[in-house]
């Protein structure tokens, strides 16, 4: 009995995978006869039709018309990405092409452009590269410099010597002595911590021993707020391929296309969506059907992966495209681009 159930489950999964793959290739509703022709096992069209009917009942397939074949739902694409595409390997042709593209980059800006081009090409969608979120910056050292008008220059130095500076206008006045004292405290107690972790620890200290830490922790929190120090979302994001995704058949409806283009312009949402992959357990994170991007997101899939710079900061990159996407190619390419992009940044 168990063996029969296992065979049935394997057959069901194989049929579902074949339906998804066929629909990705053709864009046409898939008939049971089509699957019977390409199935590894000699299953009759009637058996496959019954399996497809079961899959429809379980929410993996649907019929646009009673006489038509079946189309995958978001659940079917999710199954395909997790169970089939996740086992795929990058083709030798794609590996060579991506390696050649990234090797030719001489500067970080050129590496970003080339990575965006590769990602847009493999997905027929949007290639996106997001700079590392400032809250996850690992600090080696920091300095505060007081300007004559009361503004403060915050200089962040990461392992490997990368520097980042930002001018703040704090809510209260500081003296240079205040700034030096705060910097000394942070450099002594929090070297090699991230800004996010520093803020969390300071908040805990304030909650537990407010009287002891109120002055120094309050100053440090005011001067080390990632939301104030970070670049704008527009500065953090590089995108290529908007014209491709806009031309996809899924967005032939003008109202849906307007929604899509408006969603793409909300770069802070893209940053948040891409950065989920940094903390995700999977090396490649896949989100199918993106509710955070209004109605347009229901027809989209996002594939993302983290890249790591030599200063240990992690950014993210990926592809945003129609749900009907070549997942095996896109997922393996995203993983390889992330690897080479990090390596290229470290050499540039």
Summary keywords:
single chain, 348 residues, alpha+beta, Arc Repressor Mutant, subunit A, Beta-Lactamase, Enolase-like, domain 1, 3 domains, five-stranded antiparallel β-sheet, 10 strands
Descriptive report:
The protein contains 15 helices and ten strands. It is of the alpha+beta class and 348 residues long. It folds into three domains: 2-72, Arc Repressor Mutant, subunit A, CATH 1.10.10; 86-133 and 232-347, GAF domain (Beta-Lactamase), CATH 3.30.450.40; 135-229, 2-Layer Sandwich (Enolase-like, domain 1). The strands form three sheets. A five-stranded antiparallel β-sheet has the order 7-3-10-9-8, sandwiched between helices. The protein has a three-stranded antiparallel β-sheet with strand order 4-5-6. A hairpin with a 5-residue loop joins strand 9 and strand 10. Helix 2 (32-38) crosses helix 3 and helix 5 packs parallel to helix 15 (327-347). The model has no long low-confidence stretch (mean pLDDT 86).
């Amino acid at each position: 009995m168990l063996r029969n159930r296992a065979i049935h489950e394997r057959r069901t999964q194989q049929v579902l995978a074949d339906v998804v793959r066929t629909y990705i290739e053709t864009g046409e509703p898939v008939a049971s006869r089509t699957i019977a022709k390409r199935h590894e096992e000699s299953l009759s069209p009637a058996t496959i039709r019954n399996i497809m009917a079961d899959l429809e009942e379980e929410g993996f397939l649907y019929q646009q018309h009673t006489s038509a074949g079946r189309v995958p739902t978001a659940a079917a694409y999710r199954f395909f990405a997790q169970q089939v595409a996740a086992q795929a390997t990058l083709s030798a042709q794609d590996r060579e092409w991506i390696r050649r593209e990234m090797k030719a980059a001489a500067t970080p800006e050129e590496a970003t452009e080339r990575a965006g081009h590769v990602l847009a090409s493999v997905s027929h969608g949007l290639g996106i590269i997001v700079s590392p979120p400032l809250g996850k910056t690992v600090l080696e050292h920091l300095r505060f410099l007081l300007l004559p008008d009361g503004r403060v220059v915050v200089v962040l130095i990461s392992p490997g010597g990368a520097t980042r500076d930002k001018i703040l206008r704090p809510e209260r006045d500081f003296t240079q002595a205040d700034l030096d004292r705060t910097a000394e405290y942070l450099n002594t107690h929090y070297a090699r911590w991230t800004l996010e972790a520093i803020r969390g620890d300071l908040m805990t200290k304030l909650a537990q021993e407010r009287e002891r830490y109120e002055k120094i922790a309050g100053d440090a929190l005011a001067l080390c707020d990632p939301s104030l120090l970070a670049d704008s979302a527009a500065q953090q994001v590089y995108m290529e391929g908007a014209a491709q995704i806009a031309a996809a058949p899924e967005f032939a409806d003008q109202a849906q296309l307007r929604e899509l283009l408006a969603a793409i312009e909300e770069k802070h949402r893209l940053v948040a969506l891409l950065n989920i992959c940094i903390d995700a357990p999977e090396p490649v994170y896949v989100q199918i059907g993106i509710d955070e991007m209004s109605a347009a997101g229901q027809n989209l899939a996002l594939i993302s992966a983290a890249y790591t710079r030599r200063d240990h900061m992690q950014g993210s990159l990926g592809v945003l495209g129609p749900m009907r996407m070549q997942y095996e190619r896109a997922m393996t390419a995203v993983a390889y681009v992330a690897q080479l992009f990090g390596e290229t940044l470290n050499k540039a």
